Amino acid sequence: MPLTQRSSWLDADLDSFRDLAHSFCQKELAPNQERWSAAKQVDRELWLKAGEVGLLCLSIPEEYGGGGGTFAHEAVLLDEQARAGDDAWGHVVHSGIVAHYVSSCGTEDQKRRWLPKLASGELVGAIAMTEPGTGSDLQNVKTKAIRDGDHYVINGAKTFITNGHQAELVVVVAKTDPGEAAKGVSLLVLETEGAEGFRRGRVLDKIGMHGQDTSELFFDDVRVPAENLLGEVEGQGFVQLMRQLPQERLLIAVSAVSAMEIALEQTVRYTKERSAFGREIFKFQNTRFKLAECATEVAVAKAFLDQCVERHLKGDLDVTGAAMVKWWTTDRLSRVADECLQLFGGYGYMSEYPISRAWTSARVQRIFGGTNEIMKEIISRSL
Ligand SMILES: Cc1cc2nc3c(=O)[nH]c(=O)nc-3n(C[C@H](O)[C@H](O)[C@H](O)COP(=O)(O)OP(=O)(O)OC[C@H]3O[C@@H](n4cnc5c(N)ncnc54)[C@H](O)[C@@H]3O)c2cc1C
């Protein structure tokens, strides 16, 4: 019997899509984990393989090369990725975030230029908001994009950028009017191939997600054609970010709940296999009570997540709801992953045990996509 309920928004179409996602993730992601961790990135060909079977840009309309699906398809793929034990492949940023910036904020020309290549995997996408000196306080980004004839000239530095080492299409958050706060922010799309003055820093060393190419990016008088301004109107960047961030946060919540379910399943299994003092570890009252607490946390988190996914599918998940589900599920994930790791004893601390990776991957979810403190700040504004 499954330890958790089936999501209310799943249907037969999504079940058959899951078969495709499952076989791809088991074949292409699961066996490569150690190699990608050592390389600090996935294989570039992975993107092309995923594009070929139609797993990129699932919720982008077919006329732009996407899958023509919905957020539910993205969620199923994310769940299958987690079940394959992978935290390296940055398809969420590529398909769930970058492609949606282009799709929702781009002009018709921009959509036709970039979406088909994102869907095929010819281009890998990244979103560059965070800077060495500015993370949460996005209105204060220091990177500038100043108009010069029919180009913008970008100067600045970004850090912690997912897909940063491989990205060929980077949505850069920059000030087109440095004298303004939010109203001065615009989104510039940089095609990195041949871009003079664009430089990638090292792939950063992290405590987890070792196979993900989180990188620094540097811009030194990088000239970007004016037609690469997303939406072609200056000063819209902050509004565009605010419109897209709920989906980004919901995607984080989806992966948090999947990770919780998987940690629980693995720990129930392990505690029934391992013995101490002549009996299964599962039989100690402490173990059963801890797992009962975790199962409850997972059930509550999943019910709330499903409600938010349904709202998003109907187009009415607001900024507050997305902030709630992001902080709540990632906070619970940290607790569940920690309790589960404890029940593995010393083995829980060994990197060959998936629970140790679940624990390190869990930690960052309270930080990225807007920290959980910022989520509470957002929620409090609605009170
Ligand atoms: C693995 C990884 C991947 C990432 N991927 C990307 C990516 O693809 N693109 C991208 O742009 N960024 C990415 N980030 C960056 C991430 O979004 C930022 O780290 C995050 O937004 C926090 O910014 P910061 O690190 O500058 O922390 P700061 O903003 O300096 O915050 C430090 C602390 O102060 C708290 N704080 C700040 N302001 C307030 C406030 N008003 N009230 C209360 N507390 C506050 C924060 O909650 C935090 O605890 C990634 C980060 C990591 C670790």
TrEMBL record:
Stored Gene3D superfamilies: Acyl-CoA dehydrogenase/oxidase, N-terminal domain, Butyryl-CoA Dehydrogenase, subunit A, domain 2, Butyryl-CoA Dehydrogenase, subunit A, domain 3
Chain ranges of the Acyl-CoA dehydrogenase/oxidase C-terminal domain: 235-383
Organism: Actinophytocola oryzae
Organism lineage string: Bacteria, Bacillati, Actinomycetota, Actinomycetes, Pseudonocardiales
GO CC, one annotated term: cytoplasm
Family: Belongs to the acyl-CoA dehydrogenase family.
Domain Acyl-CoA dehydrogenase/oxidase N-terminal: 14-122
Name under which the protein is recorded: Acyl-[acyl-carrier-protein] dehydrogenase MbtN
Co-factor(s): FAD
